Amino acid sequence: MIDVGLIGFGLAGASFHAPLVEAVPRLWLRSVVTSRRDEVARAFPSAAAVADAPALFADPSIGLVVIATPNDLHAPLARAALEAGKHVVIDKPFAVDPADGRALIALAQARGLVLSVFHNRRWDSDFLTVRELLDSGVLGEVMLAELRWDRFRPAIKPGWREATVDVGGGMLADLGPHLIDQALQLFGRPDAIGADLAAQRAGVVVDDYFELTLHYGERRVILSASTLVASARPRFALHGTRGSFVKYGLDQQEALLRAGGKATDPGYGEEPAEARGMLTLADGTAEPVATQRGDWRRYYEGVADAILDGAPPPVDPADALAGLELIALARQSAAQGRKLPA
Q1: CB-facing half-sphere around the CA of 265: CA atoms within 13 A
Q2: Residues 314, 296: Cα–Cα separation, whole Å
């Protein structure tokens, strides 16, 4: 059993990390650094609200620290936790600056501690389905892949994600890590990247639209997100030499957890049949493809295995660093208006 301390009880901490930690038998949520003491007491009565991060780091019973704070605090808090001898999970993005990510990896290796980044979207139902299709070869050689994540939010939401420029806000820092990580898992590191970023809504001061084109020889992988799409585009569209697969809609786990559901509820991670993606083969035949069951718990099960059994972490921080490096290149590409080698 690993005693876990969570820093931050906003959306990520309260709806994702705390419920998933609670759902994994070898993890025990002991402490939460937050001012929302009453909310912690109601939702997780076995966990104590702690005044600040230094108090958490000083607790010898805490073996794992989970960081679910604004992006600019990820690196300094992770550094302090590692220096205090704690294993660390960081919500995405790994850090704002890739140099900080490299330093954290070196520190964790020097201290012999587990460091991992919460790229939970590797265990989305749709992503698992796409990965299985690619492995099966049914699509042939995929020459065009589009991964899109659209929202319709004409009004700017209050808070650091959309209102400030100096804390790692903006859509590329928010959804970009997930899309880039999925692309890297499916296709590896690209040869080059081209990027277009924009702030499209009135009054917004951070990017709220991006489109990245990853070049793999003749293959193109397009990653895109927008806040002004009322009729969403496919979440995944893959086109190969033998056929295409097109899938709409988002994995159901986030909606369930945000609504107060639990990862242990019956049917967790399962998708209704009507939401299945469509496989179209070269001869024109089309059929729906059963969606794999998603399960974000597998991330934290992997964290427990890494700490207690010496298994590799479920997300290698080197993978998250590769994503940060591509985000930095994307910003350069957009600023210069040209494709850059990756």
Answers
A1: 14
A2: 11
3-state class (DSSP) for residue 74: helix
First to last CA, the chain: 41
And the tokens for 147? 């991964």
Partner residues linked to 115 by β-bridges: 88
Q: Where are the beta strands (DSSP E) in the chain?
A: 2-7, 27-33, 48-50, 64-67, 87-91, 115-118, 142-150, 192-198, 209-216, 219-226, 236-240, 243-247, 277-281, 286-289, 340-341
Q: Which residues contact 35 (CB under 8 A, 6 or more apart)?
A: none
Q: Which residues contact 264 (CB under 8 A, 6 or more apart)?
A: 23
> Following DSSP, what letter does each residue of 132-201 receive, concatenated?
HHHHHTTT-SEEEEEEEEE-B--SPPSSHHHH-SSSS-SHHHHTHHHHHHHHHHHH-S-SEEEEEEE--S
Token pair for 282? 């070269």
pLDDT, residue 156, reads: 87
C-alpha to C-alpha distance for 337 and 220, rounded to whole angstroms = 18
Which secondary structure element, helix H or strand E, spans residue 77, and what is its range? helix 74-83
pLDDT score of 158: 78
Q: Can you tell me the distance from the alpha carbon of 68 to that of 83, in angstroms, rounded to the nearest whole number? A: 18
In this predicted structure, the answer to whether residue 163 has a pLDDT above a threshold of 90 is no
The tokens 């033998």 sit on which residue?
242
Report strand pairing: 236-240 vs 142-150: antiparallel
Beta pairing class for 286-289 and 277-281: antiparallel
Predicted local confidence at residue 269, as pLDDT: 96
CA distance 272 to 191: 38
Tell me the pTM: 0.95
The pair of three-digit structure tokens given for residue 52, joined into one six-digit string: 């600040």
